[in-house]
Protein backbone atom coordinates (compact mmCIF):
# COMPACT_ATOMS: atom_id res chain seq x y z
CA UNK A 1 0.00 0.00 0.00
CA UNK A 2 1.47 3.35 -1.07
CA UNK A 3 -0.87 5.50 1.07
CA UNK A 4 -4.25 5.31 2.78
CA UNK A 5 -6.05 5.72 -0.55
CA UNK A 6 -3.84 3.63 -2.80
CA UNK A 7 -3.58 -0.17 -2.91
CA UNK A 8 -1.31 -2.48 -4.87
CA UNK A 9 -2.85 -5.16 -7.07
CA UNK A 10 -1.70 -7.83 -4.62
CA UNK A 11 -3.39 -6.03 -1.74
CA UNK A 12 -6.66 -5.69 -3.69
CA UNK A 13 -6.42 -9.39 -4.56
CA UNK A 14 -6.27 -10.29 -0.86
CA UNK A 15 -8.96 -7.80 0.23
CA UNK A 16 -11.48 -8.86 -2.42
CA UNK A 17 -10.60 -12.55 -2.73
CA UNK A 18 -9.90 -12.24 -6.44
CA UNK A 19 -6.88 -13.41 -8.38
CA UNK A 20 -4.24 -11.00 -9.68
CA UNK A 21 -4.67 -12.54 -13.14
CA UNK A 22 -8.39 -11.67 -13.10
CA UNK A 23 -7.70 -8.06 -12.05
CA UNK A 24 -5.20 -7.74 -14.89
CA UNK A 25 -7.74 -9.18 -17.31
CA UNK A 26 -10.40 -6.69 -16.17
CA UNK A 27 -7.89 -3.89 -16.78
CA UNK A 28 -6.93 -5.19 -20.23
CA UNK A 29 -10.53 -5.41 -21.42
CA UNK A 30 -11.39 -2.02 -19.96
CA UNK A 31 -13.92 -3.32 -17.45
CA UNK A 32 -12.20 -2.15 -14.29
CA UNK A 33 -9.02 -0.09 -14.57
CA UNK A 34 -6.88 1.00 -11.61
CA UNK A 35 -6.90 4.70 -10.72
CA UNK A 36 -3.18 4.97 -11.33
CA UNK A 37 -0.44 3.06 -13.14
CA UNK A 38 3.18 3.94 -12.46
CA UNK A 39 4.67 5.04 -15.83
CA UNK A 40 8.09 3.61 -14.97
CA UNK A 41 7.35 0.39 -13.07
CA UNK A 42 3.90 -0.17 -14.62
CA UNK A 43 2.62 -1.15 -11.17
CA UNK A 44 -1.15 -0.81 -10.80
CA UNK A 45 -2.56 1.16 -7.84
CA UNK A 46 -6.21 1.02 -6.85
CA UNK A 47 -8.29 3.50 -4.86
CA UNK A 48 -11.07 2.83 -2.34
CA UNK A 49 -13.60 3.48 -5.14
CA UNK A 50 -11.81 0.91 -7.31
CA UNK A 51 -12.18 -1.66 -4.54
CA UNK A 52 -15.89 -0.85 -4.35
CA UNK A 53 -16.17 -1.41 -8.11
CA UNK A 54 -14.42 -4.78 -7.74
CA UNK A 55 -17.03 -5.73 -5.15
CA UNK A 56 -19.82 -4.58 -7.47
CA UNK A 57 -18.41 -6.67 -10.32
CA UNK A 58 -18.20 -9.73 -8.04
CA UNK A 59 -21.77 -9.17 -6.86
CA UNK A 60 -23.13 -8.88 -10.41
CA UNK A 61 -21.18 -11.97 -11.49
CA UNK A 62 -22.83 -13.90 -8.64
CA UNK A 63 -26.16 -12.89 -10.19
CA UNK A 64 -24.95 -14.48 -13.46
CA UNK A 65 -24.40 -11.27 -15.41
CA UNK A 66 -21.79 -11.57 -18.16
CA UNK A 67 -18.76 -9.26 -18.17
CA UNK A 68 -20.23 -7.46 -21.18
CA UNK A 69 -23.48 -6.89 -19.29
CA UNK A 70 -21.58 -5.72 -16.20
CA UNK A 71 -19.60 -3.27 -18.31
CA UNK A 72 -22.84 -1.76 -19.62
CA UNK A 73 -24.26 -1.48 -16.10
CA UNK A 74 -21.12 0.24 -14.78
CA UNK A 75 -21.35 2.85 -17.54
CA UNK A 76 -24.90 3.74 -16.55
CA UNK A 77 -25.80 6.05 -13.69
CA UNK A 78 -28.80 5.96 -11.38
CA UNK A 79 -31.07 3.18 -10.22
CA UNK A 80 -33.24 2.94 -13.34
CA UNK A 81 -30.61 1.24 -15.47
CA UNK A 82 -29.67 -1.21 -12.73
CA UNK A 83 -33.32 -2.00 -12.02
CA UNK A 84 -34.01 -2.67 -15.70
CA UNK A 85 -30.93 -4.91 -15.91
CA UNK A 86 -31.99 -6.86 -12.82
CA UNK A 87 -35.53 -7.32 -14.15
CA UNK A 88 -34.13 -8.61 -17.44
CA UNK A 89 -31.84 -11.04 -15.63
CA UNK A 90 -34.76 -12.17 -13.46
CA UNK A 91 -36.76 -13.07 -16.57
CA UNK A 92 -33.78 -14.92 -18.05
CA UNK A 93 -33.41 -16.83 -14.79
CA UNK A 94 -37.09 -17.82 -14.75
CA UNK A 95 -36.81 -19.08 -18.33
CA UNK A 96 -33.67 -21.04 -17.44
CA UNK A 97 -35.42 -22.55 -14.41
CA UNK A 98 -38.22 -23.71 -16.71
CA UNK A 99 -35.69 -25.25 -19.13
CA UNK A 100 -33.92 -26.97 -16.23
CA UNK A 101 -37.21 -28.30 -14.88
CA UNK A 102 -37.99 -29.78 -18.29
CA UNK A 103 -34.49 -31.28 -18.46
CA UNK A 104 -34.89 -32.64 -14.91
CA UNK A 105 -38.20 -34.31 -15.82
CA UNK A 106 -36.61 -35.80 -18.95
CA UNK A 107 -33.67 -37.15 -16.96
CA UNK A 108 -36.04 -38.68 -14.38
CA UNK A 109 -38.00 -40.30 -17.21
CA UNK A 110 -34.84 -41.67 -18.80
CA UNK A 111 -33.74 -43.12 -15.44
CA UNK A 112 -37.13 -44.83 -15.04
CA UNK A 113 -36.88 -46.22 -18.57
CA UNK A 114 -33.39 -47.61 -17.99
CA UNK A 115 -34.41 -49.14 -14.66
CA UNK A 116 -37.43 -50.69 -16.35
CA UNK A 117 -35.20 -52.12 -19.08
CA UNK A 118 -32.82 -53.55 -16.48
CA UNK A 119 -35.73 -55.18 -14.65
CA UNK A 120 -37.07 -56.65 -17.88
CA UNK A 121 -33.64 -58.02 -18.81
CA UNK A 122 -33.29 -59.57 -15.35
CA UNK A 123 -36.75 -61.12 -15.68
CA UNK A 124 -35.89 -62.66 -19.04
CA UNK A 125 -32.57 -63.97 -17.68
CA UNK A 126 -33.95 -65.31 -14.39
CA UNK A 127 -36.84 -67.14 -16.02
CA UNK A 128 -34.61 -68.52 -18.75
CA UNK A 129 -37.07 -67.27 -21.33
CA UNK A 130 -36.04 -66.52 -24.88
CA UNK A 131 -39.35 -64.73 -25.48
CA UNK A 132 -41.83 -63.24 -23.00
CA UNK A 133 -45.36 -63.53 -24.43
CA UNK A 134 -48.22 -61.44 -23.06
CA UNK A 135 -51.73 -60.54 -24.16
CA UNK A 136 -52.18 -56.78 -23.71
CA UNK A 137 -54.88 -54.16 -24.13
CA UNK A 138 -53.15 -51.19 -25.79
CA UNK A 139 -54.62 -47.71 -26.08
CA UNK A 140 -54.72 -45.65 -29.27
CA UNK A 141 -51.32 -44.16 -30.03
CA UNK A 142 -50.65 -40.87 -31.80
CA UNK A 143 -47.63 -41.31 -34.08
CA UNK A 144 -45.53 -39.34 -36.50
CA UNK A 145 -45.00 -41.66 -39.43
CA UNK A 146 -43.19 -42.13 -42.70
CA UNK A 147 -44.34 -45.03 -44.84
CA UNK A 148 -42.79 -46.17 -48.10
CA UNK A 149 -41.30 -49.16 -49.85
CA UNK A 150 -37.63 -49.38 -48.98
CA UNK A 151 -34.83 -51.64 -47.85
CA UNK A 152 -35.48 -53.24 -44.47
CA UNK A 153 -32.48 -53.13 -42.14
CA UNK A 154 -30.94 -51.45 -39.14
CA UNK A 155 -28.93 -48.84 -41.06
CA UNK A 156 -31.82 -47.93 -43.35
CA UNK A 157 -34.15 -47.60 -40.35
CA UNK A 158 -31.73 -45.32 -38.48
CA UNK A 159 -31.62 -43.00 -41.50
CA UNK A 160 -35.41 -42.91 -41.73
CA UNK A 161 -35.87 -42.32 -38.00
CA UNK A 162 -33.30 -39.51 -38.14
CA UNK A 163 -35.19 -37.84 -40.98
CA UNK A 164 -38.45 -38.18 -39.06
CA UNK A 165 -36.86 -36.63 -35.95
CA UNK A 166 -35.72 -33.73 -38.15
CA UNK A 167 -39.33 -33.27 -39.28
CA UNK A 168 -40.50 -33.19 -35.66
CA UNK A 169 -37.88 -30.59 -34.79
CA UNK A 170 -38.91 -28.37 -37.71
CA UNK A 171 -42.50 -28.40 -36.41
CA UNK A 172 -41.58 -27.97 -32.73
CA UNK A 173 -42.74 -31.49 -31.75
CA UNK A 174 -41.19 -33.81 -29.18
CA UNK A 175 -41.22 -37.61 -29.06
CA UNK A 176 -43.45 -39.03 -26.34
CA UNK A 177 -42.55 -42.70 -26.41
CA UNK A 178 -40.49 -45.49 -27.90
CA UNK A 179 -39.70 -45.84 -31.60
CA UNK A 180 -41.69 -48.31 -33.69
CA UNK A 181 -41.63 -49.97 -37.10
CA UNK A 182 -44.97 -51.08 -38.54
CA UNK A 183 -44.88 -53.94 -41.05
CA UNK A 184 -47.46 -53.75 -43.81
CA UNK A 185 -46.15 -57.08 -45.07
CA UNK A 186 -46.31 -60.75 -44.19
CA UNK A 187 -43.46 -61.13 -41.72
CA UNK A 188 -42.58 -64.62 -42.92
CA UNK A 189 -42.48 -63.84 -46.63
CA UNK A 190 -41.70 -60.17 -47.28
CA UNK A 191 -38.76 -59.07 -49.42
CA UNK A 192 -36.26 -57.21 -47.24
CA UNK A 193 -34.85 -55.37 -50.25
CA UNK A 194 -38.27 -53.86 -51.07
CA UNK A 195 -40.54 -53.70 -48.03
CA UNK A 196 -43.64 -51.70 -47.15
CA UNK A 197 -42.54 -50.54 -43.70
CA UNK A 198 -43.70 -47.53 -41.73
CA UNK A 199 -41.31 -45.95 -39.22
CA UNK A 200 -43.08 -44.11 -36.44
CA UNK A 201 -42.46 -41.99 -33.34
CA UNK A 202 -45.16 -41.55 -30.65
CA UNK A 203 -46.37 -38.00 -29.99
CA UNK A 204 -48.89 -36.21 -27.80
CA UNK A 205 -52.50 -35.96 -28.98
CA UNK A 206 -52.28 -32.26 -29.89
CA UNK A 207 -49.99 -33.15 -32.83
CA UNK A 208 -52.79 -34.70 -34.91
CA UNK A 209 -53.20 -31.52 -36.98
CA UNK A 210 -50.02 -32.34 -38.93
CA UNK A 211 -50.26 -34.38 -42.14
CA UNK A 212 -47.44 -36.72 -41.08
CA UNK A 213 -49.25 -37.65 -37.84
CA UNK A 214 -51.95 -40.31 -37.46
CA UNK A 215 -53.58 -42.54 -34.87
CA UNK A 216 -52.38 -46.13 -34.48
CA UNK A 217 -55.53 -47.93 -33.29
CA UNK A 218 -55.49 -49.56 -29.89
CA UNK A 219 -57.09 -52.83 -28.94
CA UNK A 220 -56.04 -56.32 -27.97
CA UNK A 221 -52.49 -57.21 -28.96
CA UNK A 222 -50.49 -60.38 -28.47
CA UNK A 223 -46.93 -59.27 -27.69
CA UNK A 224 -43.56 -60.97 -27.57
CA UNK A 225 -40.62 -59.32 -25.81
CA UNK A 226 -37.09 -60.46 -26.50
CA UNK A 227 -33.55 -59.15 -26.18
CA UNK A 228 -30.95 -58.74 -28.88
CA UNK A 229 -30.70 -57.02 -32.24
CA UNK A 230 -33.83 -57.17 -34.42
CA UNK A 231 -33.06 -58.93 -37.69
CA UNK A 232 -34.75 -61.19 -40.20
CA UNK A 233 -34.10 -64.39 -38.26
CA UNK A 234 -35.16 -63.07 -34.85
CA UNK A 235 -38.23 -61.34 -36.25
CA UNK A 236 -39.46 -64.46 -38.06
CA UNK A 237 -38.75 -66.75 -35.09
CA UNK A 238 -40.64 -64.52 -32.67
CA UNK A 239 -43.50 -64.14 -35.13
CA UNK A 240 -43.74 -67.94 -35.32
CA UNK A 241 -43.98 -68.04 -31.51
CA UNK A 242 -46.94 -65.69 -31.70
CA UNK A 243 -48.63 -67.58 -34.55
CA UNK A 244 -48.34 -70.75 -32.51
CA UNK A 245 -49.81 -69.00 -29.44
CA UNK A 246 -52.69 -67.59 -31.50
CA UNK A 247 -53.46 -71.02 -32.97
CA UNK A 248 -53.51 -72.67 -29.53
CA UNK A 249 -55.62 -69.94 -27.91
CA UNK A 250 -58.18 -69.19 -30.61
CA UNK A 251 -56.95 -65.81 -31.86
CA UNK A 252 -56.28 -64.41 -35.33
CA UNK A 253 -54.37 -61.41 -36.62
CA UNK A 254 -56.43 -58.32 -37.47
CA UNK A 255 -53.84 -55.71 -38.47
CA UNK A 256 -50.19 -54.97 -39.24
CA UNK A 257 -47.44 -56.08 -36.87
CA UNK A 258 -45.70 -53.43 -34.78
CA UNK A 259 -42.06 -53.73 -33.74
CA UNK A 260 -41.45 -51.47 -30.74
CA UNK A 261 -37.89 -50.79 -29.60
CA UNK A 262 -38.02 -50.84 -25.80
CA UNK A 263 -34.73 -49.01 -25.45
CA UNK A 264 -33.51 -45.63 -24.37
CA UNK A 265 -32.58 -43.52 -27.41
CA UNK A 266 -28.93 -43.40 -26.28
CA UNK A 267 -28.78 -47.21 -26.56
CA UNK A 268 -29.52 -47.18 -30.26
CA UNK A 269 -25.76 -47.29 -30.90
CA UNK A 270 -25.56 -50.87 -29.57
CA UNK A 271 -28.15 -53.26 -31.07
CA UNK A 272 -26.84 -56.01 -28.77
CA UNK A 273 -28.55 -54.25 -25.87
CA UNK A 274 -31.88 -53.91 -27.63
CA UNK A 275 -35.10 -55.11 -26.09
CA UNK A 276 -37.76 -55.50 -28.75
CA UNK A 277 -41.51 -56.02 -28.33
CA UNK A 278 -43.33 -57.43 -31.33
CA UNK A 279 -47.01 -56.48 -31.13
CA UNK A 280 -49.71 -58.16 -33.23
CA UNK A 281 -53.31 -56.87 -33.12
CA UNK A 282 -55.60 -59.85 -32.61
CA UNK A 283 -59.25 -60.77 -32.32
CA UNK A 284 -60.92 -63.82 -30.83
CA UNK A 285 -61.97 -66.38 -33.44
CA UNK A 286 -65.57 -67.48 -33.15
CA UNK A 287 -65.98 -71.22 -32.93
CA UNK A 288 -69.17 -73.02 -33.94
Task: Please characterize this protein's 3D structure.
There is one protein chain. This protein is α+β, with helices and mostly antiparallel strands and about 290 residues long. The chain folds into two domains: about 5-75, Orthogonal Bundle (Multidrug-efflux Transporter Regulator, Chain: A, Domain 2), CATH 1.10.1660.10; about 130-285, Regulatory factor, effector binding domain (Multidrug-efflux Transporter 1 Regulator Bmrr, Chain A). Strands 4, 5, 6, 7, 8, 9, 10, 11 and 12 form a nine-stranded antiparallel beta sheet that branches. The chain has seven helices and twelve strands. The longest helix has about 50 residues, at about 80-125.
| Structural class by SSE content | alpha+beta
End-to-end separation in angstroms reads 106 Å
CATH class of the largest domain: Alpha Beta
CATH architecture annotation of the largest domain:
Alpha-Beta Barrel
Strand content: 15-25%
Order of SSEs: EHHEEHHHEEHEEEEHEEE
CATH topology of the largest domain: Multidrug-efflux Transporter 1 Regulator Bmrr, Chain A
Total count of strands: 12
Given the C-alpha coordinates, what overall shape results?
elongated
| Helical fraction | 40-55%
Q: CATH H level of the largest domain: which superfamily? A: Regulatory factor, effector binding domain
**Low-confidence segments, ≥5 residues, pLDDT <50?**
none
Amino acid sequence: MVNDQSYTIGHVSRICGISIQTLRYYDNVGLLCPSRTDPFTHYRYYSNMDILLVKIVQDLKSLRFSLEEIGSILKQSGLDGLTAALKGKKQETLEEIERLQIAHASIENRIRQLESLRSLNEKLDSEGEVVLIELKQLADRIIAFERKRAVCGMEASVVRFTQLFDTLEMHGLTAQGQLMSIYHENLLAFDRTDSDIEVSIPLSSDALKHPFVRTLPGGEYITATYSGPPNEESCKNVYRYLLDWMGRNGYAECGPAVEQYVVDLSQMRDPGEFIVELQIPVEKVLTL
